């Protein structure tokens, strides 16, 4: 490497050393992250507050919830009245703070749900068979965070084979399908569908595996530590004279330990999608 050009030597060298150390630390953290991600489809990895990926973030009992076909639910939600509740919101209100498993049977549930309950698990009958859908958006005058069809701020949230949709369409401006402020949250084989600002990974540690995520502008955004593994990222056709932005992480301070890791995901587009690009590194 050629000698560093200097004007006043000492200050320039200090700045260079600082940048080199920062880049080295960032690369080391990225390397540790990738090494920690397991190839096994059921050995899920979660993230802790200390920014270290650990299998302890997802307990053995929780991992069983993600792989078993024998659902032992605390309550069942069914639109036809055959379950304990007819709406998901009422079922979540019954949660007591421990691990609370809700089996949501096939159907489209037109609900807008914002909850801070810890330990909630939603298990559907398929990512496109059981769907929570609503159409709120900023064009109606709603603030961006409050447009979310489903917003979770309780820790330890788990979703499996269920869909979250905002049906406002491309003319709805900002319209969130899902907003997540849940530490050690896991989304497994879910669908998350909208247009602008589909998934708001707002903060804390989040894991998405084998999920389908659809949108147009900034449709995966926020300031969380989030891992997207084996997901399908689908760019939808935006409104006229607009283009697609896949990732828009909100970190403003380079000292923050937040970021998005996209590993073994596929990126595809709908017919006639205009453009795509990554925002930030």
TrEMBL record:
Pathway: Glycan metabolism; pectin degradation; 2-dehydro-3-deoxy-D-gluconate from pectin: step 1/5. The active site is at residue 218. It holds the Pfam family Pectinesterase. GO terms for molecular function: pectinesterase activity. It catalyses: [(1->4)-alpha-D-galacturonosyl methyl ester](n) + n H2O = [(1->4)-alpha-D-galacturonosyl](n) + n methanol + n H(+). InterPro entries: Pectin_lyas_fold (IPR012334), Pectin_lyase_fold/virulence (IPR011050), Pectinesterase_Asp_AS (IPR033131), Pectinesterase_cat (IPR000070). Its EC number is 3.1.1.11. Keywords: Aspartyl esterase, Hydrolase. Transmembrane segments: none annotated. GO terms for biological process: cell wall modification; pectin catabolic process. It comes from the Eukaryota. Residues 74-276 form the Pectinesterase catalytic domain. This is Pectinesterase. It comes from Kingdonia uniflora. The lineage of its organism: Eukaryota, Viridiplantae, Streptophyta, Embryophyta, Tracheophyta.
């Amino acid at each position: 490497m050629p000698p560093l050009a200097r004007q006043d030597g000492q200050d320039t060298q200090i700045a260079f050393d600082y940048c080199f150390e920062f880049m080295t630390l960032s690369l080391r953290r990225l390397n540790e992250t990738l090494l920690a991600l397991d190839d096994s489809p059921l050995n899920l990895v979660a993230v802790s507050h200390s920014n270290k990926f650990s299998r302890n973030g997802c307990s053995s009992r929780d991992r069983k919830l993600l792989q078993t076909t024998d659902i032992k639910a605390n309550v069942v939600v069914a639109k036809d009245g055959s379950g304990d509740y007819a709406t998901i919101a009422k079922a979540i209100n019954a949660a007591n703070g421990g691990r609370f498993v809700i089996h949501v049977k096939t159907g489209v549930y037109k609900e807008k749900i914002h909850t801070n309950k810890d330990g909630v698990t939603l298990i559907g009958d398929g990512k496109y068979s059981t769907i929570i859908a609503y159409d709120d958006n900023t064009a109606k005058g709603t603030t961006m965070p409050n447009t979310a069809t489903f917003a979770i701020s309780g820790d330890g949230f788990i979703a499996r084979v269920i869909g979250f949709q905002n049906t406002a369409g491309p003319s709805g401006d900002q319209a969130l399908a899902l907003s997540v402020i849940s530490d050690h949250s896991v989304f497994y084989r879910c669908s998350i569908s909208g247009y602008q600002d589909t998934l708001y990974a707002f903060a804390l540690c989040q894991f998405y595996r084998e999920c389908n995520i659809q949108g147009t502008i900034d449709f995966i955004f926020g300031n969380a530590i989030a891992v997207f593994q084996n997901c399908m990222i689908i760019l939808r056709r935006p409104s006229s004279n607009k283009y697609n932005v896949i990732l828009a992480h909100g970190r403003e301070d380079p000292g923050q330990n937040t970021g998005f890791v996209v590993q073994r995901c596929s990126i595809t587009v709908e017919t006639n999608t205009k453009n795509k690009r990554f925002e930030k590194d």
